[in-house]
């Protein structure tokens, strides 16, 4: 009877630690989730998938528990609701079109209020991990 209580408490403590680990975004967690995140979100934001993109998928990408890398993106979820699905898909389609000039693509995406470097560069990274990086700007 007593061993059962100990086992339950150990399992409960292990689950608490696991949840805390998943929420922290520590370096090991980020590195270990890299391929999973690139695979899932790379497919979602691929040029070939944009026409089938669901806004829910975009919203999930903005959430740290799903993207495992970027914490503050979820602030833009309300932005998504202010634009039509077709408008969002059109902007994403151009952003991800490698045949177009990168400056034109980014400027076009920046026309959406709130869609600046913090969101644009992670989208480019997951779509083209060997070509782009994330631009994190630190304020002084």
Coarse shape: elongated
- The ordered H/E elements are HHHHHHHH
Q: How many strand segments?
A: 0
Classify the beta-strand content into a percent band.
Answer: under 5%
Mean pLDDT: 79
**What integer value in Å does the Rg equal?**
18 Å
N-C termini distance: 58 Å
Low-confidence stretches: none
Report the total helices: 8
Sheet/helix structural class: mainly alpha
Largest sheet: none
Helix content range: 55-70%
Structure write-up:
The chain has 140 residues and is mainly alpha-helical. It has a domain at 34-127. The chain has helices at 2-24, 27-44, 55-61, 64-67, 77-81, 85-95, 102-110, 117-127. Helix 2 (27-44) crosses helix 8 (117-127) and helix 6 runs antiparallel to helix 7 (102-110). It is elongated. The relative contact order is 0.11.
How do you describe this structure in short?
By secondary structure, the protein is mostly helical. The chain is 63% helix and 0% strand. The protein has a domain at 34-127.
Throw out a few tags for this protein.
mainly alpha; 140 residues
């Amino acid at each position: 009877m007593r061993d059962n209580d100990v086992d339950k408490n150990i399992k409960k403590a292990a689950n608490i630690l696991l949840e805390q680990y998943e929420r922290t975004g520590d370096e090991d967690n980020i590195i270990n989730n890299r391929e999973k995140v690139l695979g899932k979100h790379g497919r979602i934001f691929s040029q070939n998938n944009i026409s089938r993109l669901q806004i829910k998928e975009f919203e999930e990408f903005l959430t740290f528990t799903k993207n495992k890398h970027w914490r503050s993106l979820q602030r833009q979820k309300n932005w998504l609701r202010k634009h039509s699905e077709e408008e969002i898909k059109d902007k994403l389609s151009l952003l991800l079109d490698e045949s177009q000039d990168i400056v034109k693509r980014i400027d076009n995406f920046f026309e959406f209020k709130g869609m600046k470097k913090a969101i644009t560069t992670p989208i480019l990274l997951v779509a083209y991990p060997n070509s782009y990086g994330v631009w994190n700007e630190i304020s002084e």
